Amino acid sequence: MKRLHVKAYSVLMTLVALVWTQKLAAQTFEYPIYEDDDVRIEVKSKGARPTISDFATAIFDYSKEMEFFDKVYEDWKRYQQKKPLRHHGNFIVDIKNGFMSYETPGAEGNGTIYLEMCFWNCADAKHKLVACNVRWKMGEDYGWSEYVGCRFYLYDNEKKTMRVILPEDIGTLYDGNCLSAFFLPRKGKNIRVTVSSEGERWDEVLEWDGYKFSTKEAP
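Predicted structure:
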């Protein structure tokens, strides 16, 4: 019986130490501030808290000069005005789950381009992390262009503005020799990634911890 009590006590102390480690990490974690970055994107919201629609409006307005995003920006404005879209696109906006997507044919009808957005509430209750992802599906493969990839923004709840956050600072940077296709979650908190390199392809999961991500093997 004594051995059982000792084992149970050891397990309890391990759990207590884990909880305190997580609390300490939450108290000490800080997102980096970049010396040459003074761009703050205003997020306008009618309610007390912004919705995925509010984040989408802010990001599309910020990115409207970029290739592909100029067309999405135009269609987004028409979608909000309940007008027919011009680029054969289709929007899904899920306010409850904080997710939106846009699907449209690729250049010259080559494959399909998917744009997704979602956001996470950070553990400090002061920020939200917003993701905007574009992938280009071409048959069984994925295409690449300058607008393809996953971009992240850090939203300040108090200032109601957001700024770009680099992938290497939140655990989402992939080797430049790989072609990575991201899949944002409509439900849940983790990002699925399909990675292709040197003729091989495998899946991974980016697991959310309240501030950033860590790479795990896909189940």
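Summary: The CA atoms of residues 174 and 195 lie 9 Å apart.
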